[in-house]
Amino acid sequence: MTGILHRNGAGGMTGYGFKQRMRRRRLALALSLAVTTGIALDGGAWTHTASANGGVDYETATIGYAGKNFTVQMVTVDLKNPFLRVEPVIASGGIGHVESLSSMTERTEAAAAVNGTFFDAYAADETQKYPNGLMLRAGEIMRSGENQTFAVSVDKVPIINKLKLGMTVTVKHNGDAYSFSPWGVNTYYGAEAYDQVIWYTRDFGEKVSFPGGTKVVVSNGIITEITDGEATIPEDGQVCFIGHTDGNKKYMLSKLHVGDEVFVEAKVENKDSGDTGLAGGWDAAIGVGPKLVTNGAVDVDFARDGFDDPKITSSSNVRSFVGIDEQKRLVLGTVSSSTISQMANVLAELGLTDAMNLDGGASSGLFYEGALKRTPGRLLSNALVVKRYDEPQVQVVVNGKFITEYRGFIRNNTTMAPFRGIFEAIDAFFTWNNDERTLSVQRDGKQIVLRPDEATALVDGQTVKLEEPATIVDGHMYIPLRFVAETLGAKVQWNQELYRAELTVSK
User: Which of 49, 341, 371, 478 has a CA positioned 20 to 30 A from the CA of residue 200?
Assistant: First the structure.
């Protein structure tokens, strides 16, 4: 096997030992980008080697396999870099709609992106080009399913395994609890599936208007409306579509009432390992397939992964992939016209430990730092993007539970975190006074009053100076984490590798 490595299109390398040269080059690049900076987490000293401009690299390679040369374009991503975050993105109109890859990357301020899972590209209805694979973002199911899946855990560890996403919904009424599992999330099985039960979130769009079913509207964990007409999906809620069958009316709808409390438990089942856990343990996932590489060896099994279409099993075409390298970094890329088997062998030669096929052909597209390296030939339903933030993103864990609502960030050496998920996790009572623009929180006899952009807080009526004031970003309020947490009796520890603030509090 021979190879030619081009660095961002600016030069080339020839000779033997392609994989060894690639590893040495990546190591040298990583070392050159490392910038050690001392930062304080609200008074606790720590250091990091992350760069606001680093962590994402582009390269091309020409790989020979079975007498044919293949061109690989690829982006490598350091998943441990706190300025970066990977997530699936859907078209701006919601699931079923389509959008250009360039528009998706501009809208999400992406540093890199690749086209995502298969979708109904030839559907006549422009609003029903539904994706075929599962998707998860920040512990929340965007679309249910069971596929070979690339996923990143909250510990920033990537895997490619066969996963299944599902959920259990529990409704409480006058002390009684009733639980059910929807058929799916943000999908639709057609008017002929009379008894379907589907859970819709804002990822689907703004409204649910399918006929033949009752829509149960949930806002902030409370059933607010039950209607057979069109239902608007709340910004802070969901809509459950329940098909009009006698069984559903008798055994489900009769147990649901306006004012009932609703609790959702989303789960991820790993079909390869047999493990099942909460979806909150995962930061991102996208299901496609077939699988290409496992533990450095070619691993293509069409029957196992549910594929029999000749376009996948035998035809040659431009293809896209997602993979993992030896350093547990994410690799996004495209391969020139090839069969699935040829692509798998090429990626194994490149040294990827694991890899999976993405949608290909006219859907294949790759974006890196403001430019399309490969332009798709059609609009896309979804993509896998790498977002770059201006400020390091901080994970928050309370008593071992990951807060998935929003990430915190570091500003002026102070960790800022979203208040709602934290206060709920520590059983604090909080209120927002819109007229006075004050956030009041109480726990175990302590009271804190904060105002956005005000450099002081009131603690039990006494004025206390803040290192950084509370602030509102995109309509959500962020608080100085250590000050608030410790004032309310929590202990805060810092995980430098994961940029994670770990709160421990007695209940």
Answer: 478
